[in-house]
Design a protein that fits this description.
With 553 residues, the chain is of the alpha+beta class. The protein is built from 17 helices and 18 strands. Strand 16 and strand 17 form a beta hairpin.
């Protein structure tokens, strides 16, 4: 009361001055409050953006979540896209510098790779989608939907952004979209590495492939090449009358390849099942049923090591062709792969870095025809020995064992003929192959599903294609004698009892199917992952599988 009376005793002019001061102070406080709110929301403009980028990652995420909660529609349901960024670039790249096509309204969307400001009324974005980038040149004079500063304050680097505007080129000649409206479509709550930094950590790249695809454009190209390879194989076989089929992923018996299987359990049947190591036996049953040309492209599972060329689950193509033999399949393989390389790479010759991008390059020439090397004959020639063709004979087995010991090649027990021959083949033949080459005529003990050679006892009509020391495909004239097939299965069973955990079991159902008559047939299998490694110049299989197997963190 006393203060009020004292104020009333002040001269009128002084009271008027004080009132003006109080009003000015209130206006200043209100302005400061609004500016603080605006600065809090302006996470991608001017100094506010710089400060946001300087925060530690956890604080950055907290700030972005807080800003997101203030938005009325943080995750819109729809944004109409009228043209893709690659097609926009193709359509308008030849217009003149400085030209604005204000009648050409487009609506695009993508991820913001970069954001930079040039004053309050002008800002730029690099918008990325479908493997292409376009500049977004935002000028306040063209903005029609909402407040220019407020709308752009919501958008930061890494966000998904919608843009509607006209096409033109800047005065410097850069193709741009000049927005009439922009919209935040999805917020990236995590601070991404800058473009110049990229993402180099392999562990992070493989575990968070979405980040790898966002930040490393080369990865996108790798998986486009992979898709082209699969599509080329599919078209090649389809044009030759093959039918694409699907066969079971879970089997009672792990057959079709020499490999250690994964085991799963069927609860309803209370039954252990094997994840398939290969679809071979089912595909041959289809040929028996009258589907003369069949193929399947799909996943196989092998419970074995993880290294630069092996992943526990991998993609393979297998086809079976009635009335063909392994000679026909070698010719087809040359035609398929040489045409594929020429189609995808533009030349029969490719450059490959077997030790990584920083290592020396190797030129691989896919020009047909390719060498055909008889396995046992080459081992005899390089090893300076003569081998009998009965590889179960103790004398032949001793010669193999002695040679492996002399060469100091590692071969843990059981030291069977098949395992010893595999080591010798690797040492004398596989490790010296650069250009595509066929290794042919494998011994029967190494090939339980292949047909015996028509003129060379103890051997089979089989081949493997190797490129730069790595197996790419495996094929043979199929064994269609049910009695001989049973003997081969029993030999595999014996190997398993002796400790070979990769040996196949006895599949009585398949033998019964063979008793109904399998026509002379050629069978072929190819690993898509390894093929992709060569055509995308990657030396690690994890680089060509979107989500490779990884140890727990």
């Amino acid at each position: 009361m006393a203060e009020a009376e004292k104020g009333d005793r002040l001269p009128a002019a002084e009271r008027k001055r004080l009132k003006k001061e109080q009003e000015a102070k209130a206006r200043a406080e209100e302005k400061a409050k609004k500016a603080a709110e605006k600065a809090e929301q302006a996470q991608a403009s001017g100094k506010a953006e710089e400060k946001l980028e300087d925060l530690d990652p956890s604080k950055y995420r907290e700030n972005r979540i807080a800003a997101l909660k203030r938005l009325s529609d943080p995750y819109p349901h729809k944004w109409d896209v009228t043209i893709s960024i690659p097609f926009l670039i193709e359509k308008y790249e030849d217009i003149e510098a400085g030209l604005h096509l204000e009648s050409e309204i487009v609506s695009i969307a993508g991820r913001v790779k970069n954001k930079r400001t040039s004053g309050a009324k002008l800002m730029f974005y690099d918008l990325f989608a479908d493997g292409a980038r376009v500049q977004i040149m935002c000028q306040a004079q063209h903005h029609e939907d909402g407040d220019f500063e407020e709308e752009h304050a919501k958008i930061n680097r890494g966000d998904i952004m919608g843009v509607r505007g006209f096409v033109g080129k800047s005065n410097k000649g850069e193709l741009s979209v000049f927005p009439k409206a922009v919209k935040l479509l999805a917020t990236c709550l995590h601070m991404l590495p800058k473009d110049h930094q990229g993402l180099k950590d392999q562990e992070v790249r493989y575990r968070r492939r979405y980040l790898d695809l966002m930040l490393n454009e080369d990865i996108r190209r790798t998986f486009y090449i992979r898709s082209k390879i699969v599509n080329f194989i599919r078209h090649f076989l389809d044009s030759r009358g093959f039918l694409e089929v699907e066969t079971p992923m879970m089997n009672m018996i792990a057959g079709g390849a020499t490999a250690k299987p994964f085991i799963t359990h069927h609860n309803e049947l209370d039954l252990d099942l094997y994840m398939r190591v290969a679809p071979e036996l089912y595909l041959k049953m289809l040929v028996i049923g009258g589907l003369d040309r069949v193929f399947e492209i799909g996943r196989n599972f092998r419970n074995e090591g993880i290294d630069l060329t092996h992943n526990p689950e991998f993609t393979a193509c297998e086809f079976y062709m009635a009335y063909a033999d392994y000679n026909d399949l070698m010719d087809m393989t040359e035609e398929l792969f040489s045409a594929m390389v020429l189609n995808i790479k533009g030349s029969y010759k490719i450059e490959y870095h077997p030790t990584g991008p920083d290592g020396p390059a190797v030129e691989i020439d896919f020009t047909p025809p390719w060498p055909r090397i008889s396995m046992v004959e080459e081992i005899e020639k390089k090893g300076g020995i003569k081998l009998g063709r009965n590889f179960e004979d103790p004398e032949t087995l001793k010669k193999l064992d002695d040679l492996v010991t002399k060469l100091e090649l590692e071969c843990p027990p059981p030291r069977s003929a098949a395992r010893l021959l595999d080591k010798l083949c690797g040492h004398y033949i596989e490790d010296h192959i650069v250009n595509p080459s066929f290794i042919t005529e494998h011994p029967q003990v190494m090939s339980p599903l292949a047909k015996w050679h028509r003129s060379k006892p103890g051997l089979t009509e089989r081949f493997e294609l190797f490129v730069n020391t790595k197996e790419i495909c495996n094929a043979y004239t199929e064994l269609n004698d049910p009695e001989r097939q049973m003997q081969c299965f029993l030999g595999q069973q014996k190997a398993a009892q002796e400790g070979d955990d990769e040996a196949q079991g006895v599949d009585h159902e398949f033998v019964t199917a063979l008793e109904h008559g399998l026509p002379p047939t050629g069978g072929w299998g190819c690993g898509v992952d390894r093929l992709t490694m060569f055509l995308s110049d990657k030396n690690n299989i994890k680089e060509v599988i979107l989500f490779p197997a990884m140890k727990p963190q």
